[in-house]
Amino acid sequence: MRTWTIRELLDRLITQFENNKISSPKQNAETIISHILKMKRLDIYLQLENEISETELNSILVITERRKKCEPLQYILGETEFYGYKIKVNKSVLIPRPETELLVEKIIKEENNVNSILEIGTGSGAIVIALKKHFQNSIVLASDVSKDALKTAAENAVLNSVQLEFVKSDIFENIAGRFDLIISNPPYISPDEYEQLPIEIRDHEPKSALQAENNGLYYYEKILQNAKGHLTKSGKIYFEIGYDQAEKIADIAKENGFSKIKVFKDLNGFDRIMRII
Ligand SMILES: C[S@@+](CC[C@H](N)C(=O)[O-])C[C@H]1O[C@@H](n2cnc3c(N)ncnc32)[C@H](O)[C@@H]1O
Asked: Angle 147-159/126-134 helices, nearest 10 degrees?
């Protein structure tokens, strides 16, 4: 078998991803090579003429074949980064999105004196891990209806050395007590929109983490109908929301006795985060 330099392999992977219409071909190629060579992504450019061993080459080619078939790179590598923390992912959890980092950022900016936090639908645990790192003295309860998601979230808590509480619960079903913050990035894609999602998402990420009935509003409605009984006196709710859902969720919040509502936009100018008091 011939030997390959990093430069040659990088070019080969980029061409293959381009031919297979995979978005961001260069970034994919860099990430795969740097993951297998155990170096920072941009450091590969300091070693372009180095040769790759046969074992490393085989691992890189196996990953490349899976990626060419549109499998998300984060699932293939088993990890991603969220708010600067390493988060393990697998097919039982949604891959945490960059937009969701804004939810963490806003909460950290807006809130202090937080004693207790509940997250409904924690998935990989990415949000609560980032929040517990900041609000170190608060008690943080992470819930999800999926047993496998909770197992992954617990592994991520250990990986990031934070202590969280976990409970398997269908929304509030098994939740006791009151919290200063109730947080959720629930499934919010309507069944019609779900059919339009890219194949990369539809074929690989859990549908139960993405799709919601009632035009995508089911979980917001259920949470808002029951939240008053689980909030402290000055408690607040923070949601990640779909770009076109702010008005409808605000109406549901008002119907359920909440009056102060604030919406924050994401970097693309879309409504993305909602704070409800
Ligand atoms: C959009 S994902 C969010 C995951 C993670 N919090 C994040 O932001 O990356 C929604 C999560 O809600 C969970 N979920 C779905 N139905 C639920 C229910 N009835 N009760 C609690 N969690 C639920 C899913 O299993 C999934 O982990």
From this structure: 40
Instruction: Answer whether residue 135 is part of any domain.
Output: yes
Rounded distance from Cα 122 to ligand 1 centre (Å): 6
CA distance 213 to 203: 20
Residues 60 and 157 in one domain: no
Residue with the smallest CA separation from ligand 1 atom 7 is 96
Helix/strand/coil for 228: helix
Q: Which residues line ligand 1 (CB under 6 A)?
A: 94, 96, 100, 120-124, 126-127, 144-146, 149, 170-171, 185-187, 208-209
Q: What is the pTM of this model?
A: 0.96
Q: What percent of the chain has pLDDT over 90?
A: 99
What is the CATH classification number for the domain harbouring 143?
3.40.50.150
- CA–centroid distance, 131 to ligand 1, in Å, is 17
User: Which tens digits make up the pLDDT trace of 242-261?
Assistant: 999 999 999 999 999 999 99
- Cα–Cα distance measured from residue 187 to residue 193, given in angstroms and rounded to the nearest whole number: 12
Pairing outcome for strands 231-240 and 179-184: parallel
Q: What range defines the domain where residue 34 resides?
A: 4-69
Distance, in Å, from the CA atom of 212 to the CA atom of 118, rounded to the nearest integer, reads 21
